[in-house]
């Protein structure tokens, strides 16, 4: 007998609602949920393969514990005993910084990943935190921190209403969007064009997104900050700056005008390889559009000037009056956001409060660069202890971070490592304990992170579609028990972690004058919480305290978990609305247009006007049926055009004697790899492209399909030394490489 169940898709940032078909406890089908308030039936090939991803026979079913050098199946009790015995002595002997924590991308796609790592970090007190953010969007956090005083206040392009979208270094037709949660991003771009709007794409590759555009600019990789600075310069020079409603909220306009004065289109054109006249046209089009949004993603962040480019994206939105207005770029208001405080000056955003031990990289948002993880493990200094134990949650840095070979070796040298991961892969194979979460069908879902980045305010929650299989442990419980084990409370009831957070959060809320529960008794409030378990009670609390919440009875029509459960397809909370000045947390209480760290970094960009790469440079790419490093084990999602090949322009191929399909050797500062060439004019001259997340040929993994067609690890070409200095973000694009036929 088959049945259906609803499940929000966790496989990318679009968060589509799925209707799963379930036979017994097996997911046998997935289709788009047409009644989903947000995704309205959209699904992509990855979502359609939910059953295959969920039911992969290589997923681990029980914990693994290393004994006599080998990972063997163990009970949960044995596994957590081993974690406590492995981590505590390191903390006690060398201090908390000797324990590293690595948080990978899927943490933003799970309830557990949103709710527990913050408690684990607070309890452990380590500064050795590394996450996927520093191989991704950290530059955007830093620019938002500097401009708005809040690293998480990221404006989102109003896709449904804008008249003009300037899209930089993003390929949503393959990625389905990022830092812009929009189910059916492709459909939204087509709708933009259908209503007479225009789409401009800046990308060194002629991507599927670029082919949809009215204008595609094949910029030289890494030069976007120059292009954007020149557009700002043109807006000032031609009197096109018009802040509109924003004027009252902005400071530093005159200083900004001076700062960009020497980034003329003529001065940047050679480095960008974009015509000066075209730069002027882009600026004029942006200013002339009734509404417009500039949006930048991976190609604008994972480059040497990532923070400057991310800052300039919002500078252009501000200079054209498009920030915080419908059709422009707005700040979403999520249902689990904290109760909005009244507008006014805040604490501001600080960088470099501490530094990494070996290369003295500044922290950003409490994190150190993932690029520095290997050296923080393998290099002794007088500054302090190296990392001797590691906690990795949903992370595969051996493939996703620069110089995987060095990290691979470093992980092998640790005193102790624990991985929370469903697979035995390139990273978790080094663990002493592997704690496998259940597959997504057995897990609840709510998008704590992506609702703060969504193009429409809405809220949805799905309970597990399939009951927890015997012997499985919910990922929330795994992370709660892990938290207890590493903070010296091994064996305590895992609900203690949730009770602690609930007690602290409510205790704080009742003291805040602007909170709907101001002055009430936290214990009385806690007794009102509903839900079947700790995570549900915490979701209930956040919804009720949040901007749409019932305020624990103050607004009877407001949101609560019970109310949300009555709407299995979600609740629509309306289009994005202007919110300024409320989101601002700068010390001035205004948007600080030209913050000092940006001023200090601009000379570097000035020098970049003279830079021209001598040889080829490398960029990445994503395939619609991929997801970073962990979906190559699903046969339904591999093969066809989803291959680990080197894209190279026909003219470069001919000059180098590279034939289509032949093997080419690509060499970078960190090493070399050999992969088949695909000669295509889909990349511009001077640029080659390899996808990331491949290289599944290391021994000791359990990835039967992926290891049969392993591909190569593009990140081996990097040595980890190239970073965006303000954010510590790895430079993954625009990296110099040598290319030659392999024979
Ligand atoms: N060259 C190059 N490198 C890149 C990029 C690039 O564009 N170019 N992109 C970068 C970006 S944007 C990112 S986000 C990073 C991603 O890099 P990582 O953060 O390492 O993420 P993934 O590669 O997705 O690997 C995720 C891990 O989580 C596990 N996992 C899957 N589902 C779950 C789950 O539900 N729970 C738990 N606990 N674990 C789970 C997987 O088995 C895998 O081991 O890669 C970066 N690396
Ligand atoms: N199918 C699929 N979807 C995914 C993922 C996946 O692996 N596969 N990963 C998810 C994750 S973790 C993320 S962060 C998002 C990323 O989402 P996107 O940013 O949309 O991802 P990409 O497809 O890598 O697009 C980046 C584009 O930047 C271009 N580029 C490279 N260098 C430069 C440059 O210097 N300047 C400019 N202007 N462009 C440049 C590349 O050619 C590429 O087309 O995707 C998410 N969705
Ligand atoms: S677009 Fe993303 S969220 Fe939607 S079905 Fe595909 S993978 Fe899932
Ligand atoms: Mo990412």
TrEMBL record:
CDD domains (UniProt xref): MopB_1, MopB_CT_1
InterPro entries in the record: MoPterin_dinucl-bd_dom, Mopterin_OxRdtase, Mopterin_OxRdtase_4Fe-4S_dom, Prok_molybdopt-oxidoreductase
4Fe-4S Mo/W bis-MGD-type domain: residues covered: 2-58
GO cellular component, as recorded: membrane
Superkingdom of origin: Bacteria
Keyword Iron-sulfur appears in the UniProt entry: yes
A molecular-function term among this protein's GO annotations: metal ion binding
Keyword terms: 4Fe-4S, Iron, Iron-sulfur, Metal-binding, Oxidoreductase
Protein name stated in the entry: Dehydrogenase
